[in-house]
Write a structure and sequence with these properties.
three-stranded antiparallel sheet, two-stranded antiparallel sheet, 53% helix, disordered N terminus, 10 helices, alpha+beta, 205 residues
Length: 205
């Protein structure tokens, strides 16, 4: 539902929800100083999502939210919105054409496609589905840590930033799922399993 009027924006802050409804959560995705700006952005998001609402935050701000969701679904939506920031990260290497630098999200897509294409070249009994799961999460940490050429002079500091990023990002998810995603990231980093070794080989091409 898209709320576009002043009364609608104010309404959500004034209603006392029943106990069952209070178990539901909204994910705030943006805040604007004017009703006109908030309404414009709410309409923008409503073209992409079904459950867009708005409300007055107080102190002259209007919030735009998605929901209501259960706690688990709210966490998953918040994680995906945060993961969308990977599209803004620009890597140090160039595209094959040499026309510009590659984005990290582009890199992740291409390395997954590459893995599917070269799956027949993986060592026998390699679980390609698991390799793809490793590759899907392996560079999410660049949202916080960025992309770096790594050598002996900066290895420790880069890895520390990446571990801090992993802790923050995967904590956005429901606990069990967050632990699962973090374990995938750690497996890729450790490079000890057959799947991790093939994933790292695909990432290095």
């Amino acid at each position: 539902m898209l709320l576009v009027g002043l009364a609608a924006f104010v309404l959500l802050t004034c209603v006392t929800l029943p106990a069952k409804a209070q178990e539901q959560l909204w994910v705030q995705i943006e805040a604007k100083r004017t009703l006109a700006e908030a309404t414009e952005r709410a309409r923008f998001y409503a073209r992409q999502f079904d459950d867009v609402e708005g409300y007055y935050l107080g102190r002259g701000f209007y919030g735009i939210v998605l929901g209501p969701y259960s706690d688990a679904l709210a966490r998953q939506v918040a994680f995906l919105l945060e993961a969308d920031k990977l599209k803004e990260v620009v890597r140090l290497n160039q595209l094959a054409s040499g026309t510009r630098r590659e984005g990290t999200a582009e890199h992740c897509w291409h390395v997954i496609l590459q893995t599917l294409t070269f799956a027949d070249h993986a060592p026998e009994d390699t679980d390609i589905h698991h390799v793809i799961r490793l590759l899907t999460v392996h560079d999410l940490v660049e949202i916080d840590a960025g992309d770096h050429w790594v050598d002996e002079t900066n290895f420790a500091s880069v890895k520390a930033r990446e571990h801090t990023a992993a802790e923050r990002l995967f904590a956005l998810l429901p606990q069990t799922q967050g632990s699962e995603f973090k374990d995938l990231w750690l497996e890729f980093e450790a490079n000890d399993t057959a799947e991790a070794r093939f994933a790292n080989a695909m990432d290095a091409l």
